[in-house]
Design brief:
Elements: E1 4-5, E2 14-16, E3 25-26, E4 36-38, E5 63-65
Parallel strand pairs: 1-3, 2-4, 4-5
Length: 71
């Protein structure tokens, strides 16, 4: 299982993590300005919705594309 932890500038508004073999979404607590997130075509969902509960760390997201995963 590949886990992807995000450590980038906290002022990011748009983030595209598509096609990265990500299996768990976590580490979003410092991305307070993030509005648009694309994480399509990864490996998210093997553990059900637990794999995306890290999205709750970033309530500023208004557009999410999580298509073509295992959810």
């Amino acid at each position: 299982t590949v886990k992807f932890k995000i450590r980038i500038i906290s002022q990011s508004i748009n983030l595209n993590l598509s096609d990265n073999q990500i299996s768990v979404v976590e580490g979003f607590s410092t991305l307070n300005c993030l509005q648009n997130l694309q994480i399509k075509r990864n490996r998210i969902g093997g553990n059900g919705l637990d794999d995306v509960k890290g999205l709750l760390e970033c309530p500023s997201i208004s557009a999410l594309d999580i298509s073509d995963n295992h959810i």
